[in-house]
Design brief:
The chain is about 30% helix and about 25% strand. It contains eight helices and 14 strands. The strands form three sheets. The protein has a six-stranded mixed beta sheet, covered by helices on one side. A six-stranded mixed beta sheet has the order 6-7-8-9-13-12. A two-stranded antiparallel sheet has the order 10-11.
Length: about 280
């Protein structure tokens, strides 16, 4: 009986190791179609988040090919394309975003890792500043509490860069729409509002502020996913987080939460491959 139990445990360990290696090195493409009030025409884009310097094939050729296949009009980045670490490493993220910028308009909102590199240069060095400057020269539009209008489609894209206190472990402070108004101003009238906001935990505040569509990441799908229960743990160490991945509604606002493409700290994915998110917006 003892040998049977040991054999069973070894088989389970091998099974989960195989799944971990498989899911940590692949991604799937997930497409959403959303009908939108006030939109002037169809608009198709790819949303990326949480790459954390991961490469799918040499020079990310597999990821680039998958994006090209979708024929997006633009690329929207919801943060954490690289990782705050020493020594600094920006190469895979920078190379990918540069190649995308040569083909598409790219709109980039920072996640907590870019924000940390930016604000703590004394600790991490000046790598982020060089990364930011080089991508801007290639045409990438950084939305650091800023917005850009796409007049042909009637879309205004906002990027929210919230303070580090909103990424605390366990439970961060409450957020209300007033905080976002101080960062972003009031939503423009007559446009469809897309908000790039890395941390999904504050979706109710984003909806109250006036976002029509929120694009988030950060949670990595919960690292491991279980049937019926969903994602197991969030970066803030909450078990079975409410927002783990997929589509969510809050009043008249929709949130698409991407499960990300890479990982860090706990560098595993189980039943949870990386995710390339494709969104097609259609006038209602």
């Amino acid at each position: 009986m003892v040998y049977f139990i040991i054999g069973l445990l070894c088989a389970a360990a091998l099974f989960f190791t195989g799944i971990m290696l498989y899911d940590s090195n692949r991604f799937v493409t997930v497409e959403y179609r959303i009908r939108c009030r006030g939109l002037k025409r169809k608009y198709r884009f790819v949303m990326l988040s949480d790459l954390h310097n991961k490469s799918y094939g040499e020079h990310n050729e597999k990821l680039l090919a998958a994006i090209e296949k979708q024929k997006p009009e633009s690329i929207l980045i919801a943060g954490d394309m690289l990782t705050s670490e020493k020594p600094e490493r920006t190469g895979p993220a920078q190379e990918l975003v540069e190649k995308l910028a040569a083909r598409y308009p790219v709109y980039y909102a920072n996640g907590n890792h870019e924000y940390r590199l930016k604000m703590e240069e004394a600790h991490y060095g000046s790598g982020y500043r060089r990364y930011h400057a080089r991508l801007e020269r290639k045409g990438v539009v950084f939305l650091e509490n800023d917005s850009v209008l796409l007049p042909e489609a009637g879309i205004r894209i906002y990027g929210a860069e919230i303070g580090k206190e909103y990424y605390k472990k366990r439970k961060g402070p409450a957020m209300d729409a007033g905080y976002l108004k101080r960062l972003l101003g009031r939503p423009s009238k007559g446009d469809y509002h897309i908000l790039l906001a890395h941390n999904p935990d504050y979706f109710p505040a984003y909806a109250e502020w006036g976002a029509d569509l929120v694009l988030s990441g950060h949670v990595h799908g919960g690292i491991m996913r279980l049937p019926l229960l969903g994602g197991v743990i969030s970066p803030t160490l909450r078990l079975f987080p409410r927002y783990d991945g997929g589509l969510f509604q809050e009043g008249g606002s929709t949130m698409i939460l991407g499960r990300g493409l890479g990982s860090h700290t706990i560098p595993i994915r189980i039943f949870n491959p990386g995710e390339l998110v494709v969104v097609e917006l259609e006038p209602q």
